[in-house]
Amino acid sequence: MKKITDEQIQALLESELRPSGEILLDSEKEQLQSYRSLFQKLNTEPEQGLPFNFASKVTSQLKLKLKRRNDIRFNLLAVLGIIIGLVAAYGLLIVIDLNAGKQFLLVILKFKWLVIFSLFILLSSLVFDQQMVEKN
Question: Residue 81 and which of 26, 58, 98, 120 are 20 to 30 A apart at CA?
Answer without folding.
Answer: 98
